[in-house]
């Protein structure tokens, strides 16, 4: 098969949802359709369960599973589908943000009873900022939930989406009769049988046809006709280009657990979802069909086996082909590297592959060469943008609790930061180290992993900081910036890349600082124009 056809075949996407909305269940049903797994229950849920086990044991369990579910690939209707895993737990939101830099589209899962939840709001905002095409799947229609129109309003108001339903529910919960598929113009009756692989559908071009009464009963028929009239009147016709531009967002309804509405979603997805999209590097826009390899690391998994210090760097291929044993330029380190056993992912297995194409993810065994955001090329000086660090929300001093093990401690901290578990800041004034995290859970993760993987012990001390902001002076030589540095010296630190960071101790002090030094811009994200 030629290079162009291979690219056109690929669909690389992420499923995002608030925990419990049904992401794992939907993923599993998609894999079943692809024939990649044979039975339900094969895909493990990597969410943090609220059980009696302590949080960090739970995190270890989750980490074990998430290697297996990082990339799940399968073939459906001759398309190679790569699903990238996105943790739903808010403390791992940064992981999800980074994964979103490697997807070409997303499916958002919403629980019909809960509607739009906070975690979804933040993730969808990131997708909208990047114009990532979004399809919405409203799940759990077998349960009582919110009215379909209220949900569509919710999607517009809370998520800022421009929705257009491509299917519409007939009843809900106890009265759930099925779904009218607006995209395919047919009716799918709900049987509540999750084992069914292909649901029976009844073609229904004209909704006015009196057969509708025989199929779903007269009152449901009347409601459906009214609903569809309203849909027609209120929502725009589906426009594939608008969807691809991230300006229109198709919505499907179903029940993942009952395998209902999932085939419709998948069939539409393979038809409309984008093949690998071009990606902006600092230097230029890179098209997928360029012959030379370019790719970037968006995730690192380390030390699954502490005896071997193994790390797996996940590289998204943006252009060209990635070939086994061919030397590639590691741009940041300015050195050529060869990989004798690059991994590709299929369902829950990984195996060594000779060649991978744009849209694919390869897992590279690494002994400490890679950091998140690193770029690989065939020689070009190229730096992919868009793997920013976000301002952490929790800060603590990190101290060495075992002076005999300081080497291990610093190595451990270094590697965990490369993996993106947290961010390290070094205070300008006294060189003390401060760890900043998105969620409080990460402090436990770091302590636990330092001890179990590096044999080092750390302790924490409170450090009352409200937010870390990256400092961006209009003119580093002007007096205003010099005064800012002098007055705020107690609150200045360097991040791992040596960028200057202001640690504001309250929202008030942040506002005051901004108004007092207007030529010193403060950013909540580490990448800015
Ligand atoms: P997540 O990955 O988004 O966190 O959600 P997950 O798929 O684990 O689903 C969360 C819960 O919702 C699970 O129940 C799952 O069985 C249920 N669920 C998913 N889809 C549907 C649906 O269409 N209808 C109904 N009624 N339930 C659905 P659980 O009891 O929390 O977990 P489990 O013990 O069944 O695994």
From TrEMBL:
Function: Increases the formation of ribosomal termination complexes and stimulates activities of RF-1 and RF-2. It binds guanine nucleotides and has strong preference for UGA stop codons. It may interact directly with the ribosome. The stimulation of RF-1 and RF-2 is significantly reduced by GTP and GDP, but not by GMP.
Protein name: Peptide chain release factor 3
GO cellular component terms, semicolon-separated: cytosol
Binding site for GTP: 17-24, 85-89, 139-142
HAMAP family, per database record: Rel_fac_3
Any one GO molecular function term: GTPase activity
SUPFAM superfamilies (UniProt xref): EF-G C-terminal domain-like, P-loop containing nucleoside triphosphate hydrolases, Translation proteins
NCBIfam families reported for this sequence: prfC (TIGR00503), PRK00741.1 (NF001964), small_GTP (TIGR00231)
Keywords associated with the record: Cytoplasm, GTP-binding, Nucleotide-binding, Protein biosynthesis
One BP term from GO: regulation of translational termination
Coiled coil residues, start to end: none
Pfam families for the chain: EF-G_D2 (PF22042), GTP_EFTU (PF00009), RF3_C (PF16658)
UniProt subcellular location: Cytoplasm
PANTHER family found in the cross-reference section: PEPTIDE CHAIN RELEASE FACTOR RF3
Domain called Tr-type G: residue spans: 8-279
Similarity section: Belongs to the TRAFAC class translation factor GTPase superfamily. Classic translation factor GTPase family. PrfC subfamily.
Transmembrane regions: none
Matching InterPro entries: EF-G-like_DII, EFG_III/V, G_TR_CS, P-loop_NTPase, PrfC, RF3_C, RF3_dom_3_sf, RF3_GTP-bd
Highest taxon of source: Bacteria
Main subcellular location of this protein, as a coarse class: cytoplasm
């Amino acid at each position: 098969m030629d290079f162009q056809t291979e690219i056109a075949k690929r669909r690389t996407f992420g499923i995002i949802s608030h925990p419990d909305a049904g992401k794992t269940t939907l993923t599993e049903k998609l894999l079943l359709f692809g024939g990649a797994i044979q039975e339900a229950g094969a895909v493990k849920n990597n969410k943090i369960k609220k059980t009696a086990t302590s949080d960090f044991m739970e995190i270890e369990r989750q980490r074990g599973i998430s290697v297996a579910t990082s990339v799940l690939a399968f073939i459906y209707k001759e398309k190679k589908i790569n699903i990238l895993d996105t943790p739903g737990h808010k403390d791992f939101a940064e992981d999800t943000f980074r994964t979103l830099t490697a997807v070409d589209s997303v499916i958002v899962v919403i629980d019909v009873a809960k509607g739009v939840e906070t975690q979804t709001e933040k993730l969808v905002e990131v997708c909208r900022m990047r114009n990532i095409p979004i399809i919405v799947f409203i799940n759990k229609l077998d349960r009582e939930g919110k009215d379909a129109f209220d949900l569509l309003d919710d999607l517009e108001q809370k998520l800022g989406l421009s929705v257009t339903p491509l299917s519409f529910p007939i009843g809900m919960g106890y009265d759930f009769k099925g779904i009218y598929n607006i995209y395919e113009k047919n009716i799918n009756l709900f049987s509540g049988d999750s084992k069914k692989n292909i649901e029976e559908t009844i073609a229904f071009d004209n909704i006015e046809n009196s057969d509708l009464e025989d199929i779903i009963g007269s009152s449901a028929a009347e409601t459906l006709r009214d609903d569809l009239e309203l849909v027609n009147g209120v929502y725009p016709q589906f426009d594939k280009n608008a969807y691809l531009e991230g300006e229109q967002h198709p919505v499907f309804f179903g029940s993942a657990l009952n395998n209902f509405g999932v085939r419709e979603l998948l069939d539409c997805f393979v038809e409309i979802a984008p093949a690998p999209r071009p990606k902006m590097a600092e230097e230029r826009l890179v098209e997928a069909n360029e012959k030379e390899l370019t790719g970037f690391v968006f995730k690192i998994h380390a030390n699954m086996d502490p005896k071997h210090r193994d790390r797996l760097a996940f590289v998204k291929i943006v252009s060209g082909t990635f070939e086994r044993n061919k030397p590639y330029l590691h741009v940041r380190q300015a050195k050529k590297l060869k990989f004798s056993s690059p991994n590709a992912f299929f369902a829950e297995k990984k195996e060594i592959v000779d060649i991978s194409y744009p849209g694919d993810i390869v897992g590279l065994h690494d002994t400490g060469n890679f950091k998140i955001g690193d770029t690989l090329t065939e020689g070009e000086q190229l730096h992919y943008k868009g793997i920013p660090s976000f301002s952490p929300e929790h800060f603590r001093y990190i101290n060495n609790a075992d002076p005999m093990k300081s080497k291990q401690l610093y190595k451990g901290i270094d590697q965990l930061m490369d993996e993106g578990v947290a961010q390290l800041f070094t205070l300008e004034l006294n060189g003390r180290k401060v760890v900043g995290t998105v969620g409080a859970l990460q402090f436990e993760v770091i302590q636990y992993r330092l001890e179990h993987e590096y044999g080092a012990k750390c302790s924490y001390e409170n450090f009352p900081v409200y937010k870390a902001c990256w400092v961006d002076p209009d003119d580093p030589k002007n007096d205003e910036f010099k005064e800012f540095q002098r007055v705020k010296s107690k609150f200045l630190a360097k991040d791992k890349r040596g960028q200057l960071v202001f640690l504001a101790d309250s929202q008030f002090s942040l506002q005051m600082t901004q108004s007092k030094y207007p030529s010193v811009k403060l950013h909540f994200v580490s990448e800015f124009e």
